[in-house]
Design a protein that fits this description.
Layout (H helix, E strand, L loop, with lengths): L11 H14 L1 H25 L4 E4 L6 H8 L3 E6 L2 H13 L5 E4 L5 H4 L4 E6 L8 H13 L1 E9 L12
Parallel strand pairs: 1-2, 1-4, 2-3, 4-5
Helix pairs in contact: 1-4, 2-3
The structure holds S-adenosylmethionine (SAM).
């Protein structure tokens, strides 16, 4: 008989740590396809950043840093931050494997004002739209604003139309 031990993560933070640990371990299986998807996802963003005359980008929900690496390879001064300590442990290894040197640091959006060592022309996030309380949205937006250069931009993804109303 095989005994399975089931562990339920205590919250979002432990869940992301678990996901990134597993994905790092298995990356040989999915990475080639993921690079393709990430390049496709980033194409319109790079066009937008070029139009906005952005030179520096903080990828503030970078995960393992795939998009951060692509920002750096596209010539941007790129840094990556994330609330997951596990993601931030592995992200520099991915960057090194890809031949780019990037500063990654552990930070929730709300802590960026304290943890960033510089300001950026753009803060990018593919997770900002997942913030689920108004209080957190306000503190996160304030914190991001504090690390932007004058005229800097926050660029984030939004869920595709579907059932959402404009007010959502
Ligand atoms: C969809 S994943 C990021 C994927 C990654 N950008 C990529 O291209 O592979 C979302 C990330 O947002 C991070 N995250 C969630 N809430 C956060 C917060 N409050 N502050 C910073 N990062 C957060 C999670 O730890 C997770 O790594």
């Amino acid at each position: 008989m095989v005994r399975l031990k089931i562990h339920v993560c205590s919250g979002e933070s432990e869940s992301w740590d678990t996901i990134w640990k597993w994905l790092w371990f298995t990356r040989e299986v999915w990475e080639t396809e993921y690079w393709k998807e990430e390049k496709k996802a980033l194409k319109p963003i790079l066009t937008l950043l070029s139009r906005l005359r952005v030179k520096s980008v903080l990828d503030c929900s970078c995960g393992l840093g795939y998009k951060t690496v692509l920002f750096a390879k596209a010539g941007y001064e790129a840094e990556g931050s994330d609330a997951s300590a596990t993601a931030i442990k592995y992200a520099p290894k991915l960057a090194k494997d890809e031949g780019v040197s990037i500063r990654f640091f552990h930070s929730r959006y709300e802590e960026l004002g304290r943890k960033c060592k510089r300001k950026y022309d753009c803060v990018w996030s593919d997770n900002f739209d997942e913030i689920n309380t108004y209080g957190c949205l306000k503190t996160s937006a304030r914190s991001i604003y504090s690390v932007l250069n004058p005229g800097g931009k926050l660029v984030f993804t939004a869920p595709p139309g579907g059932d959402l109303e404009k007010d959502d």
